[in-house]
Amino acid sequence: GKLGRYPPWPGKIVNPPKDLKKPRGKKCFFVKFFGTEDHAWIKVEQLKPYHAHKEEMIKINKGKRFQQAVDAVEEFLRKTKGKDQASSHNSSEEKNRRNSSEERGKQSAGEEKRKASLSEGKLKKGTGEGKKRVSSVSSERGSKSPLKRAQDQSPRKRGRPPKDEKDLTIPESSTVKRVMTGTVAGFKWPPSVSEPVKDSDPHFHHFLLSQTEKPAVCYQAITKKLKVCEEETGSTSIQAADSTAVNGSITPTDKKIGFLGLGLMGSGIVSNLLKMGHTVTVWNRTAEKCDLFIQEGARLGRTPAEVVSTCDITFACVSDPKAAKDLVLGPSGVLQGIRPGKCYVDMSTVDADTVTELAQVIVSRGGRFLEAPVSGNQQLSNDGMLVILAAGDRGLYEDCSSCFQAMGKTSFFLGEVGNAAKMMLIVNMVQGSFMATIAEGLTLAQVTGQSQQTLLDILNQGQLASIFLDQKCQNILQGNFKPDFYLKYIQKDLRLAIALGDSVNHPTPMAAAANEVYKRAKALDQSDNDMSAVYRAYIH
């Protein structure tokens, strides 16, 4: 239960709130962790100078949020160094004050060793602290709010960062004295981190995955302008885009965008494309769904073929393989609008065979094709926080950059067509199976006389804690099954994932069992409810 069991985490020493007392009998500092909203009293022996230990840091912890925190440290140091240089002409009084009463964020090992020995009493309160909170989400480790966690005097549960990267505070105090890390485990930071492009969305990350001859793969972060880093054969490295420039903005592409399919996911995507200044033409099978977006500035397309012929890049997001094929191959379909240079991006979650067939017919007409299924739900779509899994035409992926930044928080390029479909089905297989397990546990608790709310509270305090777990349990406890992700679609994804396993003779017994429960829920008329309505399949 001690902090030392958790991975090291970069932070900075700050003044504690006035009403927060220092723990007795412990020589410790009040630390704000980079990339999170966590605070904690940390024992002095658990603090290590950042620069002196930077190179031995991250071998074990390669998590994206951790790397974002390190990026935040580097950005903070760049800003601090810039301020130091800008203020080098200050008066001798200021110089004396700095030398006598403040620790400075300098980068020599000697300075770090000196600073590590300074007492808390020499810290002076910083200004401009706690700059901008991008957004706030309830704690995934239970019902404690970040404030309550900061006021708790025990550091046990605060050594870990929250799992949600939306819960992000970038402190920017000009008088912070020392950047440090918690208990150090050995690891190494990637040799080069690309500088952020000024007009890119600071909270959006691109990743390129390239298969090598060896099993290892290479992820590289790229900025909005998508300057691809050279990759080392057989190496594995992750570079997270800088997430500290909170004033970044998206420059929309000047290409004309088309969008086909305004369902739970498509509606949020189109709304965000419009908000970010894209020119969008929309089409939906039931035309009345287009009305709202016409009011928001979208243009109306009469048929899929018309949308494709009048737009440079056309996205589609429909329900299943049959709908995806009909949209392309049917009367007045996408294919009829394709001519050399036209671009088609299919965001539907389908099987690899379907998407490969569609890619072939599009390319045969001189078009360019990208598959880009998304991981998320209606809420994440509305918030522009989807995870995009792309594969196919790499140049088209780059051309879609501003669109992906508008609709998502992260984009992965996975290579050749079919890879994204397979990966998406695996992701949703895991999610669907987990949802069924949650429902099974809640119903077993009920029939054995246990409190379902207490079960949720226990889970929220353990390692399974997540936004997904909490939201789906709340749906069940409240009897609210308004769709955030249709039950019929998660069952479809399970079915396709099982077929994927069949195609390579790989067993998927967990997914198969979960699929049967969803099929029962569909028989109980739960298809158009949220996936959490699988709970009703367990009620006798």
Short key terms for the protein model shown above:
540 residues; alpha/beta; SH3 type barrels; Rossmann fold; N-(1-d-carboxylethyl)-l-norvaline Dehydrogenase, domain 2; eleven-stranded mixed β-sheet; five-stranded antiparallel β-sheet; 16 strands; globular; disordered N terminus
- Indicate the mean pLDDT: 76
Q: Helix count, per DSSP? A: 19
> Uncertain segments of ≥5 residues (pLDDT<50)?
1-5, 100-199, 210-248
- Pairing-aware structural class of the strands and helices? alpha/beta
Shape: globular
User: Which CATH first-tier class of the domain at 235-416 would you pick?
Assistant: Alpha Beta
The major sheet is characterized as:
11 strands, mixed
> What is the CATH T-level topology of the domain at 235-416?
Rossmann fold
Kindly state the number of beta strands. 16
- Approximately what portion of the residues adopt beta-strand conformation? 5-15%
Subcellular location: Chromosome
Keywords: Chromosome
Domain PWWP: 1-53
GO molecular function: DNA binding; NAD binding; NADP binding; nucleosome binding
